[in-house]
Write a structure and sequence with these properties.
heterodimer; A: mainly alpha; MetI-like fold; 14 helices; B: mainly alpha; 15 helices; flat; MetI-like (chain B)
Chain lengths: 280, 287
């Protein structure tokens, strides 16, 4: 409330807000609305026909199932990594901690060719699986691996600060009352980090749905089998089927917006709860 | 709870120590194996493949004309996108963090859109807007302006993709600092610019640097969005990541990894600066 009464003291609201709105509109809002405009040139039945095409449905299935599995794997191992980084001392921890962010900093195309070099049938690791009849690169497994790479930091960086702030008293109390480590984790720690876990999961999942660069090299791009939605959009564009590309993109975009809205709503609710607890 | 306290508590009894140590090294082992397979190994592969045919070939791949022009275009793109989004980031964060207004949460969500949109869709919207069949296509063609399959398109797509980086770093920092210091400066007779350069900027400088570094890394490394709008003309509209793709698709793996190693180096430098900034601001906070 204090800010409201004083807000006229600070200068620059008009100009900063004005610039923000103009720049936001020019760079983001207008271009995005052109997409909806283009999609709306299709009749409803044409739109439906484009989106429900066999090949499109197959690519949605591949994209969603790979993204879901990758986000789940990241939720489990991301939490474990966050735990290890917060609770234990070991040699080289600072470097490991910094490198967790590598997927944020490494260009996706670089990640893509590196992962392919590792998991291709003649690759560093792929060669050991090839005799067993397991194909990692150029299959859905490869797509999932690329999406695990891309999404991992989201979960670690969501959970890590919550674990850092977690009050040890609860754990000590539970331990005094005879709870074992597993019970302490399930009943005390897990509930405390669940909101952060969900945020991390949703961020990793959302990122995976739209990911292109790291996946195209390792996926093999076989229609109906290992073709992801973003690649299909590019294929449509290359065939000059702009309306078709816009239709598929619209579906993807609506799903992304829904996720973004959920994530922001969730974070806003958490922040509100946090403030209420702290009495601010 | 700090790592030190946690370990001390667990090591009080001998029995506790043994099971604690076992658990500790098991968990560390699993974490490092996972990170090793998915994060560290790709990094090692890039440098090892890049230099596998000797250092001479490595240097050759980086100094041939197409590579040099890709480096140049990547630098130009970042040199436009980063300052633009920095100016926007500071102004937007100022409005959002220091003032109360209706619809603030909606504005923040709108700013986040480029993070949620697939890079391919980001490229697509600019093709729909400026491409030859696009909304403004006929107008641009009549005036002989080339946006798509040209440098302007690459820059635009990059600006879009890196749009939220700086502002998202600055909002929480500015919110935490409140408005007291700025108000004090104004009361003591500073004008708006003096207030900004002497009070606000010093307070946000580490966060600003952090945001700019992340913005820069993404601007130089963006692949999907740029790939859609670029047209892949060698020596003309190829950025470094696109050059990597072309070399790779031509089975010129060593050269592809050589160029990729430049980008990996950029990523490592980014992480080093990022850690340094984090360490600095942590130190400032504990002081």
């Amino acid at each position: 409330m204090r800010n409201t009464s004083k807000r006229h003291l600070l200068p620059g609201f008009g100009i900063s807000m004005g610039f923000t709105m103009v720049y936001l509109s020019l760079i983001v809002l207008i271009p995005i609305s052109v997409l909806f405009l283009k999609a709306s040139t299709l009749s409803l039945s044409d739109f439906w026909q484009t989106v429900s095409d066999e090949r499109v449905i197959a690519s949605f299935k591949v994209t969603f199932s790979s993204s879901l599995i990758a986000a789940l794997v990241n939720t489990v191992f991301g939490t474990l990594i966050a735990w290890v980084l917060v609770r234990y001392h070991f040699w080289g921890k600072r470097v490991v901690d910094a490198l967790v962010d590598l997927p944020f900093a490494l260009p996706t195309a670089v990640a893509g060719i590196a992962l392919t070099a590792i998991y291709a049938p003649n690759g560093w690791i792929g060669q050991f699986f090839e005799p067993l009849g397991i194909k990692i690169a150029f299959s859905q497994l490869g797509i999932t691996i690329a999406l695990i790479f891309i999404g991992l930091p989201f979960v670690v960086r969501s959970v890590q600060p919550v674990l850092q702030d977690f009050d040890a008293q609860y754990e000590e109390a539970a331990s005094t009352l005879g709870a074992n480590s597993f019970q302490i984790f399930m009943k005390i720690i897990l509930p405390a980090i669940t909101p952060a876990l969900l945020t991390g999961f949703a961020l990793a999942f959302a990122r995976a749905l739209g990911e292109y660069g790291s996946v195209v090299f390792i996926s093999g791009n076989m229609p109906m089998k290992t073709e992801i939605v973003p690649l299909l959009i590019i294929t449509k564009l290359e065939q000059f089927d702009y309306a078709g590309a816009a239709a598929i993109a619209t579906v993807m975009l609506l799903i992304s917006f829904l996720l973004l809205f959920l994530i922001n709503f969730w974070q806003w609710k958490q922040a509100k709860k946090h403030r209420a607890v702290k009495g601010v | 709870m700090s790592a030190k306290k946690y370990e001390e508590r667990n090591e009080k009894s001998r029995e506790g120590r043994r099971s604690h140590l076992l658990r500790k090294w098991m968990l560390i082992g699993v974490a490092l194996t996972f990170l090793g397979l998915f994060i560290f190994l790709p990094l090692i592969v890039v440098f090892s493949e890049a230099t596998s045919k000797g250092f001479e070939l490595y240097l050759l791949a980086l100094t041939e004309p197409d590579a040099l022009s890709a480096i140049k275009l990547t630098l130009i793109t970042a040199a436009i996108a980063v300052p633009l989004n920095t100016v926007f980031g500071v102004l937007a964060a100022w409005a959002i963090a220091k003032f109360e207004f209706k619809g603030k949460n909606i504005l923040i969500t709108l700013i986040d859109i480029p993070f949620a949109v697939s890079p391919v869709i980001a490229g697509l919207v600019f093709v729909l807007l400026f491409g030859s069949q696009g909304l403004l296509g006929p107008f641009l063609e009549a005036n002989n302006i080339k946006v798509i399959f040209g440098i302007p398109g690459i820059v635009l797509a990059t600006v879009f993709i890196t749009f939220p980086f700086v502002v998202r770093e600055l909002i929480p920092i500015m919110q935490e600092q409140g408005t007291d210091e700025e108000e004090a400066a104004l009361t003591l007779g500073a004008n708006g610019w003096q207030m900004f350069f002497r009070v606000t900027l010093p307070n946000i400088k580490w966060g600003l640097l952090y945001g700019m570094i992340l913005c820069n890394a993404r601007a130089m490394g963006e692949f999907g969005a740029v790939s859609v709008v670029s047209g892949h003309i060698r020596g003309l509209t190829n950025t470094l990541p696109l050059h990597v793709e072309i070399l790779y698709n031509e089975y010129n793996f060593t050269a592809a990894f050589a160029v990729a190693s430049l980008l990996a180096l950029l990523a490592l430098v980014t992480l080093v600066i990022k850690s340094f900034v984090e360490w600095r601001s942590e130190k400032l906070r504990s002081e």
